[in-house]
Amino acid sequence: MVKRVSDAVKRRLPRYYRRLLSLDEAGTESVSSKELGALLGLTASQVRQDFNLFGGFGHQGYGYPVNKLREALEEILGLKRAWKMVVVGAGNIGRALAGYGYLGGDAFRVEALFDVDPAVIGTQVHGLTVKSADEMVSFINENNIDIAILTVPQEVANKVAHLISSSAVGAILNFAPVKLDAQENGPIIESIHIIDTLMSLTYQLSAKNITKPR
Amino acid sequence: MVKRVSDAVKRRLPRYYRRLLSLDEAGTESVSSKELGALLGLTASQVRQDFNLFGGFGHQGYGYPVNKLREALEEILGLKRAWKMVVVGAGNIGRALAGYGYLGGDAFRVEALFDVDPAVIGTQVHGLTVKSADEMVSFINENNIDIAILTVPQEVANKVAHLISSSAVGAILNFAPVKLDAQENGPIIESIHIIDTLMSLTYQLSAKNITKPR
DNA sequence: TAGATTGTTAATCGATTAACAATC
DNA sequence: TAGATTGTTAATCGATTAACAATC
What does B144-174 look like in DSSP terms, one character per residue? Predict the structure, then answer.
């Protein structure tokens, strides 16, 4: 009954959720596929196709009940429970993410922060004491960590990712600007390449200047 | 002669570039579309199609000259010049990005960091003195800033984005978890929604457990 | 009821993959 | 030369859009 969920849909689900959350908080009772599509830059068809992958949430002539759909998405996205995370690498980005609180909610919790630098180990970051990377794998396993956020320098990213993959962690969120080698039966990997997005901007800015100089 | 570059290609260009850079630094002279595709998880066809959008860089029977292709991508992506940036919002992520240095290179430079909090204004972050948001637009215009990195709380993100759009900035890199309203003839906007990527992970972790419990 | 809007099938569009002649 | 690999056209695949009967 459950159809295949494409990557494109997978990426849209959080966007639907965020918007439905804000509609719900604003007290909106229902929303049509057309309205929601307009808010997100999608067609009404696309919205309906997407929601129908997970079941019929709408009512003809009425639209979708905001609260009910929000709840359903919360369930689908796994936001009804808390997820335990560790941050690996206490550099700029790592330290920033260690203070991460989810939109006022509590789905994501950073339980520990690791580094290899003796000068950094033992220091306090957002109420956490930086731990030695030597303790990482055992900490992940003993504390049932779900997600490891990888913010180490690119030179060692794959080495550290391998180490993480030897633990029981479920997923890695990678911020290093390298492609991590996927492991057979290893953690799910998603990457955020900030530098790629910056380059995409400079590409567009450069291309723009060719056709339409400012 | 230049064909339309799809969003999918636009997102692959930085990945090609990063890989070619590391191949070049490793002294590799040539790479075939098959080899490069394998390194990036793409088909050889796709690699050849992509490069052919920008001209014939390859040689039959030989492949692509790494250094020449890297140079070409550097040109295409606009990395031969420096881009001036400001960070708007001196919170966790903003402060982290203010210390941003590009992969040892010098294409991206953070020139200033702005905030509205009087307690933060005037403090030092990575060698920069946090400036008042009141000075932002004039600073952007007087210093020919190319890119504004937006790291303010979501509640004010669109308001601040509007303000930024009233300046001469070319692009906004948005980290706030909201969709920014696109402006007619306004800056190019790209967003990095960290929370969306986390939700995509928990979706996958949840879906995984339904079919294959651990 | 009449109007609105869904769920779902069919049509379209675009991106990816395959194929292969050209040629280094 | 023979083998390898490109550039490019054609085929396939999948995602998006359109259409419309069902129905609230």
Answer: T--EEEE-S-HHHHHHHHHHHHTTT--EEEE
CB A173 within 8 A of CB A192: yes
Structure tokens at A49: 């196709």
Query: If you measure CA to C1', which residue is closest to nucleotide D6?
Result: B60
- B19, containing H or E segment: helix B7-25
Q: Residues 150-189, chain A: which have Cβ within 8 Å of B?
A: 154, 170-171, 173, 177-179, 188
Q: What is the largest distance, in Å, between two alpha-carbon atoms of chain A?
A: 64
Residues A95, B99: contact at Cβ < 8 Å?
no
C-alpha–C-alpha distance, residues B4 and A79, integer Å:
39
pTM, to two decimals: 0.94
Condensed to tens digits (0 to 9), the pLDDT of residues A82-104 reads 999 999 999 999 999 998 765 55
φ/ψ of residue B104, rounded to 5: 80, -10
Q: Which residues of A116-154 are buried (b: 16+ CB within 10 A; e: fewer)?
A: beeebbeeebeebebbebeebbebbeeeebbbbbbbbee
At which residue do the structure tokens 């009404």 appear?
Answer: A44
pLDDT digits (tens, 9 = 90+) for A146-179: 999 999 999 999 999 999 999 999 999 999 999 9
Considering CB atoms only, which of B40, B41, B78 is closest to A203? B78
Report if CB B46 to strand C is under 7 Å.
yes
| Closest by Cα among B107, B138, B111 to B127 | B111
B37 CB and strand D closer than 7 A: no
Which residue segments constitute the domains of chain B, with CATH numbers given?
7-76 (1.10.10.10), 83-196 (3.40.50.720)
Length of chain B, in residues: 214
Where do we find the tokens 């290893």?
Answer: A186
What is the nearest CA distance from B135 to chain A, expressed in angstroms?
23
Tell me whether B96 touches chain A (CB under 8 Å): yes
> Is strand D within 7 Å of residue A209 (CB)?
no
Within 8 A of A214 by CB-CB distance, chain B residues are: 168, 170
How many angstroms is C1' of D18 away from CA of A150? 44
Q: Mean pLDDT for each 10-residue chunk of chain B (214 residues)? A: 83 97 96 97 97 92 96 95 96 91 74 97 96 98 98 96 97 96 92 96 84 38
Q: Chain B within 8 Å of A103 (Cβ-Cβ)?
A: yes
Residue type for position A93: I
